[in-house]
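About this split. The held-out portion is used to measure sequence recovery: a designer receives only the C-alpha cells and must propose an amino acid at every position. Recovery is the fraction of positions where the proposal matches the reference. Here is one held-out target exactly as it appears in the evaluation file.
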C-alpha cells in the first residue's frame, strides 16, 4: 500500500525544548475556508517538503493552522523590543506561532513559523490576524531580496483564511508560513535580560552561538565573539540593503535578527530617485528609519543587544562595558568596509584605491542632486564600461557636466578587460527590483481576487539581473506625479 507523502518533513523543536521558559505552547485559531494563494515550490523542495502534498487539502490545513503537523509543538515566542526608541518589555508573537524546525537538504536548521494565525497571550490589543496584502508583500519582497543575494527570511506559502480582517476597511485575511534561519531577535535577548536571570541570558546566548555563530564557542571570550559576529552580520546586511536602495522601514530591535537575515517586511520599500533621507513608513514621522540612517540605527540596536549580554561580557561591569563599547564603536568601520566593497563591485573596480570613498560619495551626491533613479542608473553604467554612456548621461540631465567629470575619473579606474568587467557589473546591479508602485498594484489586484499581476511580478523579481525583452515596465520608476510613496504598517 502506498503511503501519501507528508507535506512537511519531521519537525523538531529544539528551541521550545531547550528554552522552554521563553515560549508559550499555543494553538492556531484556524481558518474557516482556507485557500492556497501562493506556494514557494523551490523553497519547499529545499526544505525537503513535498510541494504537491503541501498544495493538497491536508497541506493547506497545515499552512492555515488548522492542522498541527505530526510531532510538532507550536509555541508563541517571547521577546521584548525597542520600538522607535522606546522600550516595550512585553512584545512576543502576538499573532504568530513557531511550528518547529526542519533540517533542510543542506543540513541547515530552519524555523517554520505561521504569521496571522490568531491571538496568543502576547497579542495585547491586537486581533491576531493578518491581511492578504501585507502577507503577499512579505512573500514577494522576501523572494526579491533572496534573488538579489541578500540574507532574508522567506515565505513558504500564503493561505487566504476565507475570513475578513478589520483594518481601516474590511480586508481578506491570510496566514503566511515563514521560513527563517531562526526567529532569534535582539528583542529575544532583551526579554531574557528584562525578565530572566543571568543563567537564562547565558542559555539563550549558548543556543544562538550553536545555531548561528558556532565559531564563537571556540573563542577565548565566547560571548564577546558572539556579539562581534552579530555586529559583523548586521554591518554587512545593512550595507547590502543600502546598495540596492532598500529601506526596511521599521528597524525596531524586535525586527533585527541574530542570524543576520532580514525579517519583517512591513512598511519597507525601495528607493527610486536617490535621496538618502527617504523614509517610507507613514508612522516614521521623524525619518528615524530613513535609508541613510540605517547604519546608525543598526548600531543603536546592537548596543541594546550588548546591554542585554552585559553580564556575560566581562568579569566586572566596567570590563564588560569597555569590551562591548570597543566592538560597538567598530560598527561604522565594518559597515563602511562592506559598503565600499559593494560599491566597488557595482562600479566594476577590482581593487580598493585611495580616493574610493570620495569617488563613491560624489556619485551619490550627484544622483541625489539630480534625482537620478538609483537602480536603472547603476545598471546603465555597465554600458558605459562597454563604451556607451548615453543612457547613464541621460539620467543626469542638467548635471551632465559634473557626471562626465566623475565618469572620466571612474572609467580611468576600470581595468582593461572591459567586456568582462561589464558582465560582472551586470551580476550585481539589478534590472528589476520591487518597484513600489508595481508592488502596490499587484497587492491591490490580489486583494480584489486577481493574483495574475502578483504572479507576474514574482516571476520577474526571481531573476533580477537578467534583462528580458517585454519587461521594460518592470524596470522603470513610477511615472512622475504619483507623489511620495508611503507604506502603512503591514498589520
Ligand atoms: P510588528 O510591527 O509586526 O513587528 O509587530 C510588533 C508587535 O506587535 C509584535 O509583538 C507582534 O506580535 C504584535 N502584533 C502586530 N500585529 C498584531 C496583531 N494583529 N495582533 C496581535 N499582535 C500583533
Ligand atoms: Mg516584528
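Reference sequence for scoring:
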Amino acid at each position: 500500500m502506498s503511503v501519501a507523502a507528508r507535506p512537511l518533513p519531521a519537525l523538531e523543536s529544539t528551541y521550545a525544548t531547550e528554552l522552554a521558559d521563553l515560549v508559550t505552547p499555543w494553538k492556531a485559531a484556524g481558518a474557516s475556508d482556507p485557500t492556497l494563494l501562493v506556494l514557494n515550490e523551490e523553497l519547499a523542495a529545499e526544505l525537503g517538503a513535498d510541494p504537491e502534498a503541501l498544495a493538497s487539502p491536508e497541506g493547506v490545513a497545515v499552512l492555515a493552522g488548522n492542522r498541527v503537523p505530526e510531532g510538532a509543538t507550536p509555541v508563541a515566542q517571547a521577546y521584548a523590543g525597542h520600538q522607535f526608541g522606546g522600550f516595550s518589555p512585553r512584545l512576543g508573537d502576538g499573532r504568530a506561532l513557531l511550528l518547529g524546525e526542519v533540517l533542510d537538504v543542506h543540513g541547515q536548521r530552519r524555523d517554520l513559523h505561521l504569521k496571522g494565525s490568531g491571538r496568543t497571550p502576547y497579542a495585547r490589543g491586537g486581533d491576531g490576524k493578518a491581511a492578504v496584502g501585507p502577507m503577499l508583500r512579505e512573500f514577494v519582497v522576501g523572494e526579491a531580496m533572496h534573488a538579489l543575494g541578500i540574507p532574508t527570511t522567506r515565505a513558504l506559502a500564503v493561505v487566504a483564511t476565507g475570513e475578513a480582517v478589520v483594518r481601516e476597511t474590511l480586508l481578506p485575511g491570510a496566514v503566511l508560513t515563514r521560513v527563517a534561519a531562526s526567529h532569534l531577535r535582539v528583542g529575544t535577548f532583551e526579554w531574557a535580560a528584562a525578565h530572566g536571570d543571568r543563567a537564562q541570558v547565558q542559555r539563550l546566548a549558548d543556543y544562538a552561538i550553536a545555531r548561528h555563530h558556532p565559531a564563537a564557542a571556540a573563542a577565548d571570550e565566547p560571548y564577546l565573539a558572539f556579539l562581534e559576529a552579530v555586529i559583523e552580520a548586521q554591518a554587512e546586511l545593512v550595507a547590502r540593503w543600502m546598495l540596492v536602495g532598500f529601506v526596511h522601514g521599521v528597524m525596531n530591535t524586535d525586527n533585527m535578527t541574530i542570524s543576520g537575515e532580514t525579517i519583517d517586511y512591513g512598511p519597507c520599500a525601495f528607493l527610486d530617485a536617490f535621496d538618502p533621507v527617504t523614509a517610507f513608513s507613514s508612522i516614521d514621522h521623524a525619518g528615524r528609519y530613513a535609508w541613510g540612517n540605517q547604519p546608525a540605527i543598526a548600531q543603536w540596536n546592537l548596543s541594546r543587544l550588548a546591554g542585554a549580554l552585559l553580564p556575560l561580557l566581562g568579569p566586572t561591569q566596567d570590563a564588560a562595558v569597555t569590551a562591548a563599547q570597543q566592538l560597538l564603536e567598530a560598527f561604522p568601520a565594518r559597515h563602511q568596509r562592506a559598503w565600499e566593497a559593494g560599491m566597488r563591485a557595482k562600479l566594476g573596480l577590482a581593487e580598493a584605491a585611495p580616493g574610493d570613498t570620495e569617488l563613491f560619495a560624489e556619485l551619490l551626491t550627484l544622483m541625489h542632486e539630480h534625482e537620478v533613479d538609483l537602480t536603472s542608473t547603476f545598471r546603465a553604467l555597465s554600458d558605459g564600461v562597454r563604451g556607451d554612456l548615453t543612457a547613464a548621461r541621460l539620467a543626469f540631465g542638467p548635471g551632465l557636466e559634473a557626471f562626465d567629470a566623475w565618469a572620466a575619473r571612474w572609467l580611468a579606474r576600470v581595468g582593461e578587460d572591459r567586456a568582462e568587467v561589464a558582465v560582472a557589473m551586470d551580476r550585481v546591479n539589478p534590472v528589476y527590483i520591487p518597484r513600489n508602485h508595481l508592488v502596490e498594484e499587484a497587492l491591490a489586484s490580489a486583494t480584489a481576487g486577481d493574483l495574475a499581476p502578483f504572479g507576474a511580478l514574482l516571476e520577474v523579481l526571481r531573476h533580477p539581473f537578467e534583462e528580458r525583452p517585454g519587461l521594460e515596465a518592470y524596470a522603470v520608476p513610477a511615472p512622475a506625479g504619483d507623489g511620495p510613496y508611503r507604506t502603512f504598517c503591514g498589520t
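Annotator remark: The longest helix spans residues 222-243.
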